[in-house]
Amino acid sequence: MLVARGLRKTYGKHTALQGIDLDVGRGAVCGLLGPNGAGKTTAVRILTTLLRPTAGRASVAGYDVVTQASQVRRSIGLVGQHAAVDELLTGRQNLELFGRLHHLGAARARARAAELLERFGLDHDGPAGEYSGGMRRRLDLAAGMIVDPPVLFLDEPTTGLDPRSRAEIWDRVRELVSDGTTVLLTTQYLEEADRLADRVCVVDRGRVVAEGTPGELKAELGGDRLDLVVLDGERLAEAAAIAAGAASGPVETDPHTRRVSAPVAGPKGAGGVRVRVLTEVLAALADAGVEVEDVALRRPTLDEVFLTLTGGGAADAARERAGSPERTEEGVR
């Protein structure tokens, strides 16, 4: 449903995309991850015909994004980073307006608006300006589905939402995918990609630097991780030395949180091996008199994958979630 080959975009001397390749099958969710300015939004704008690529080719639903742009637009829905709804109109009026803009007849636009209002739980009769942030994003998502497109682009759809509103959006996206909709999702919430995406493409400096299922990307970091929080920060180095004896890679320490983190490798499916390692480390800490406040044996997270692949990009993502301004390929947001 979505194919890109060697997709490039330059703005003068600046290169936003440096040859991206993508393949997304029917009814799948592809998560496009990357730090600020990595090229995610530029890729979406090209795939939705809002920008012309400098080089390369792409097709959506079988149509070329350059030579068959009008057919592409009839086959897609787009939910951008900011809700594109008229705050003076009700939710129903907004959806009917979008229906008419898509050349649906008046009766069909009313019927489709009623269907989407019920599906997305938007029964509020007041103007959209009175909606909560989560309701406004659900209305924006409903507007993107007004013509029931086979391909839906979600460009950071839950930025700024509280956890409950974010979960509501995730539920609606899952419903759409279960009905066969193909979704390309850009996000800086790693949990969002982990929950929704079948495959993840990590983009950095305009290139795809890693691709695979969330599980495959996590596995590349080398198995489970052992996390310890020591009670006495003065004994952090001692705890790290004990953990190093069982670690399969470099041990990380954080003096501020008194945390020790180390990769623990073992044969695939050998949960007993990893539990034995945990038991041995705890016994060694007890013998040394190092008290532990918390301990966990866990799988790597997408956050760790993201940070490993993109360096400091995770810090940029954290600032974005906190609402600080940053530079993107389109300028200052």
UniProtKB/TrEMBL annotation:
Bilayer topology term: Peripheral membrane protein
Keywords: Antibiotic resistance, ATP-binding, Cell membrane, Membrane, Nucleotide-binding, Translocase, Transport
Chain segments carrying region Disordered: 314-333
Gene Ontology terms: cellular component: plasma membrane
SUPFAM superfamilies noted in UniProt: P-loop containing nucleoside triphosphate hydrolases
Domain ABC transporter span(s) in chain numbering: 2-230
GO terms, molecular function: ATP binding; ATP hydrolysis activity
Residue ranges, compositional bias (Basic and acidic residues): 317-333
Locations listed in the record: Cell membrane
Tree of life domain: Bacteria
Gene3D superfamilies in the cross-refs: P-loop containing nucleotide triphosphate hydrolases
Biological processes, Gene Ontology terms: daunorubicin transport; doxorubicin transport; response to antibiotic
PANTHER family associated with the record: ABC TRANSPORTER ATP-BINDING PROTEIN, DOXORUBICIN RESISTANCE ATP-BINDING PROTEIN DRRA
Membership in a protein family: Belongs to the ABC transporter superfamily. Drug exporter-1 (DrugE1) (TC 3.A.1.105) family.
Name of this chain's protein: ABC-2 type transport system ATP-binding protein
